[in-house]
What we know:
Largest sheet: 7 strands, mixed
Structural class: alpha/beta
Low-confidence stretches: none
Strand order of the largest sheet: 2-8-7-6-5-3-4
Order of helices and strands: HHEHHEHEHEHEHEEHEHHHEHEEEH
Number of helices: 14
CATH superfamily of the largest domain: Type I PLP-dependent aspartate aminotransferase-like (Major domain)
Number of domains: 2
Mean pLDDT: 95
Bound molecules: pyridoxal-5'-phosphate
Shape: globular
Helix content: 40-55%
Radius of gyration: 22 Å
Amino acid sequence: MTEEFHKVRRLPPYVFEEVNKKKAAARARGVDIIDLGMGNPDLPTPSFVVDKLCEAIRDPRTHRYSASKGIAGLRRAQAAYYARRFNVKLNPDTQIVATLGSKEGFANMAQAITAPGDVVLCPNPTYPIHAFGFLMTGGTIRSIPARPDEDFLRAIDRAVRHSIPKPIAIILNYPSNPTAYEATLDFYAEVVKFAKEHEIIILSDLAYAEIFFDGAPPPSVLEVPGAMDVTVEFTSMSKTFSMPGWRVGFAVGNERLIAALARVKSYLDYGAFTPIQVAATAALNAGDAAIEEVRSVYRHRRNVLVESFGRAGFHVPPPSSTMFAWAQIPEAYRHMGSVEFSKMLIEKADVAVAPGVGFGEYGDDFVRIALVENEHRIRQAARNLRRFLATEQDQGQKAAAGA
Ligand SMILES: Cc1ncc(COP(=O)(O)O)c(C=O)c1O
């Protein structure tokens, strides 16, 4: 009984764990690590949402099992959000399921639709559940580029011609974690046309729908006429309303797919605690003011990060959405790979970032920097980096002079 279980063998130890251990060890020594590693929002949930939870929890009727697919009011609020924000009409009874965070929804959708050996087209690098949700259910992943451009379209076309069996689904995630790439409606239209032609399901992860700074608001795939025939889209309250610990998200779209997810969930859970769903309903119905505040905090942090890291000698391309920057490892250190580089930053600059390889092998030249510390701490991280890079340069020059 010492062999790893079949399913567990398909889940390699979390790459981030190595970096986390280094972080924990440094903290245990009393070092103040500035943690830009995990995408765990640090902002408080808006107080009116907390108040609503407290009010609902005092009613003992809310203490019973809730509804697995979400209470009706919450599903109606999500329908109203899609109508307002994307001009997409959804039937709250048949086209919406509330999930225990979008991650749970995504993983259980994978469970609902995958037979052993089914092929799924998944961007690389990407948020880990996009691949592992399917690997856990016995599916097979074929990597496609993360950037939404001609290469992506060529890759899915090649994949359909050469994969046996034919792929069952394409994963989309724009704005993307970790790359912050964004897709246009024209790009989505191309993917929808392709998916319909080849009878492939589209699973779109729109977790960062509301975290955008410069350009137009990110579109939904469901805005493409006819997309509903093949698409399910996942959204999340975690980033939009700074509610990561509450575990509320949604799957919306094609009725057959939503019914499949609802069926699986009906065997697994009784829905989130009702007061949480009541409070989430209030958040969704409150409109844009709370969201605008969250956006503004991340926008300022983004500006400080790009400017201060740039001055320190670490070029960070400005993301125009998400709460992440995706930065190439400076040339001199690229050979180390992202895990060793991230460990070095913890040790020598007291700064934690996420190694790009944790999101897929094609991410190994990069690190992901999360905007989860305040502006003051981000500036401090930049000062630490500058000191570290200057010391390294100094040592390099001395070694060269001595050689
Ligand atoms: C792209 C993406 N999808 C899903 C999630 C998970 O969101 P939730 O908290 O709703 O499960 C995250 C969280 O970081 C994410 O970045």
